Structures are given as structure tokens and as C-alpha cells.
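Quick one, C-alpha cells below. Sequence please?
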């Protein structure tokens, strides 16, 4: 897409929409992965080689696992991670593992990625303020101070990866840690 932009085949708003769509899609997939892993570890359909048998209790029948965890709701929020996933994991798993096994940096990155997602998806004053706080100390050009512009930016001159690519790689790494 960057090549298409450079060749004049698309405009900046077009490529920014591509970045927005890709980011929201990857973030939605990440949230679904957390949910699938959580429920699978709890109902026993998935297991961890690193943290075997960490459930505090077994839900019987297994088919009730989702209903019990969701407490009658249609969906659960899994992010922000520290406020949603970790407290829930501590209820159902010994020491909240594997969900508490992320480093402080990984948890902080998830908070940042969630702020970007919220700024893209909600565009509320609160979401915008959090995003602006996230980028406030960064040396960005004016075009890079929007969520989409930020995702297209590179952290330093000569960097081979955009912020979007860095986020995707970090989300993949976090997923690997959780799924060990």
C-alpha cells in the first residue's frame, strides 16, 4: 500500500483507512485469542506445557464454562488487560497463570495498544486524550499525531518497521508467552 501511495495510485486518507482497518482487525483477533485461551484452559480443552493444571476449580458440566465466566452477559471485555483479564484470571487460575506471566513492559505495551485501538474505534474525548498523552513526548511530524498517522510512522529514521508492524510483532510475542 505504501508503494501504491508513492506511485500516486491512492491518497493518504486511503492508506490511513487501510492501517486503521488492519489494526482494528488484528486487535480484535488478539482479544478473541485471549478469550479462546482463557475458556479453553478453564474447560480443559486447551492445556499449558508451562503452567499445567492451574485451574482453581473445574466447572461441570464443561458446557457451562462460558455461561459461568460471562455471568449471563453476551460478551466480556478482555482489555484493558490489567483491569479486565488479570483480575478474572486470578479468580479462576492459581496465581492467574498464564495470564499474569507477561512482563511489566508487555502489560504496558498492551495498555498503549489498547489506547490506540480506542482512539481509532471510539474517537471520544477520553480516547483521544489518552492517545495524545501516549504520543506527547515523541518526536512526530504533524501528520503522525493522529492514530492512523502514528501507526504509519517509524520510531526512528531508518527504522525498517512501522509502529503498526512493531505492534503486530509484539502482540504475536505476547500470544506466544500466553500460549506456552
Amino acid at each position: 500500500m505504501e508503494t501504491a501511495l508513492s506511485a500516486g495510485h491512492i491518497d493518504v486518507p486511503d492508506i490511513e483507512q487501510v492501517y486503521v482497518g488492519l489494526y482494528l482487525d488484528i486487535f480484535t483477533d488478539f482479544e478473541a485469542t485471549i478469550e479462546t485461551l482463557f475458556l479453553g484452559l478453564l474447560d480443559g480443552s486447551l492445556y499449558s506445557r508451562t503452567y499445567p493444571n492451574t485451574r482453581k476449580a473445574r466447572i461441570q458440566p464443561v458446557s457451562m464454562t462460558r455461561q459461568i465466566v460471562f455471568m449471563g452477559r453476551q460478551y466480556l471485555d478482555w482489555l484493558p488487560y490489567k483491569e479486565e483479564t488479570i483480575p478474572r484470571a486470578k479468580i479462576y487460575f492459581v496465581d492467574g497463570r498464564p495470564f499474569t506471566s507477561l512482563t511489566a513492559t508487555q502489560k504496558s505495551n498492551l495498555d498503549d495498544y489498547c489506547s490506540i485501538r480506542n482512539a481509532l474505534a471510539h474517537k471520544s474525548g477520553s480516547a483521544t486524550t489518552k492517545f495524545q498523552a501516549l504520543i506527547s513526548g515523541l518526536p512526530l511530524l504533524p501528520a503522525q499525531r493522529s492514530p492512523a498517522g502514528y501507526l504509519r510512522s517509524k520510531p526512528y529514521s531508518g527504522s525498517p518497521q512501522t509502529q503498526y508492524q512493531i505492534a503486530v510483532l509484539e502482540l504475536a510475542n505476547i500470544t506466544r508467552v500466553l500460549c506456552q
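Helices lie at 2-6, 12-43, 65-70, 85-92, 104-121, 125-135, 147-152, 163-178. The longest helix spans residues 12-43.
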